[in-house]
Design goal:
Layout (H helix, E strand, L loop, with lengths): L5 E8 L2 E8 L2 E5 L1 E3 L12 H6 L5 E4 H6 L3 H6 L3 H4 L6 E4 L2 H7 L3 E3 L4 E4 L6 E4 L1 H11 L3 E3 L11 H22 L6 E6 L5 H13 L4 E4 L8 H11 L9 E3 L5 H9 L4 E3 L2 H7 L2 E4 L2 E4 L19 H4 L3 H10 L2 H27 L3 H19 L9
Parallel strand pairs: 4-14, 5-6, 6-10, 10-11, 11-12, 12-13, 13-14
Antiparallel strand pairs: 1-2, 2-3, 7-8, 8-9, 15-16
Helix pairs in contact: 6-7, 7-8, 8-9, 11-14, 13-14, 14-15
Amino acid sequence: MSEEFTFSVAATDGAARSGEIRMPRGVIRTPAFMPVGTAATVKAMYPDQVKALGADVVLGNTYHLMLRPGAERVARLGGLHRFMNWPYPILTDSGGFQVMSLSDLRKMDADGVTFRSHIDGSTHRLTPERSIEIQGLLGSDIQMQLDECVKLPNTEEAVEKAMRLSLAWAERCKVAFGDQPGKAMFGIVQGGASERLRVESARALVDLDLKGYAIGGLAVGEPQDVMLAMIEAVEPHLPAEKPRYLMGVGTPDDIVEAVRRGVDMFDCVMPTRAGRHGMAYTHGGRLNLKNARYAEDTRPLDPTMKCEASTTYSRAYLHHLVRAGEILGMMLLTWNNLSYYQELMAGLRKAIREGRLEDFVAQTKEGWARGAMDDGAGEGAGEG
């Protein structure tokens, strides 16, 4: 274990990189997918299962944890790692996105945001300093700056205003974070779908000399080609010796394409949320287990995977569990989905090290397409 926060790139293939983030609580192998543990739990999974699948880090959410059970309470109970029985690295987001998407009432100003809890309607105030304070009370290893995230599409005026406010908040977050050995604070590049604003945001954040940089405000309604264009615009302006994190992304195809463009870290609720709603990710694409076609299908989800949920339960049984609303169905499909995501990341890392990323990407996409043809287009099969 490293006593300091360090990042190193061991191999490249085109713009793609494979490397390691080292810190006191462990090593994060990159490219990395971080399962989302919004409220101090990766839904429907035991912590040791999550680790066994290959996850080196999980994500916790400042907004949800500040509302329930409360950051001060978590601190009194020994911090988030002890609280959720996860002794490995934890990244916490700042809460800004959830304020935008969940709060019934919010008022933004230059100092911060006042919002009403989606749980009980109580009023709360979140400033850059308070966001960093909460993340410190939780004890997370990687902390994110508070930013303003706007929905896309939007006017350039609104996007620019949010980008400039986010830059001002990044400076305040850096001061509030101070010097925390072994930990890191990441800035967040904003700017919507504007290359000009994205580049300006990236350059200004790099001037702050932070330990890592995220690309935020994407996967919020824009087409994939717009998201990829913004990554391509920003990547040349981010330092090669520091990690790059694409927030809230995404589908397996989104991840593959972002890795090809130099992104190192990802998080998304998609594999866990899909699992709770009857969807399975496999090497043969995405399957909708609600479909009647699986009612007498004795095949496992994916015999090529290492996960027991993928190999030892029939699609017919999983279809039954999903249709009956049984908790076991949600657990098994979530287990399968997180396994698929971690196997995909391991495959990407290996392919980059061996200099065969493009072949790996082509084979992966061919598998998705073949699965879609085998299971019938338009009924939940295939990538997407």
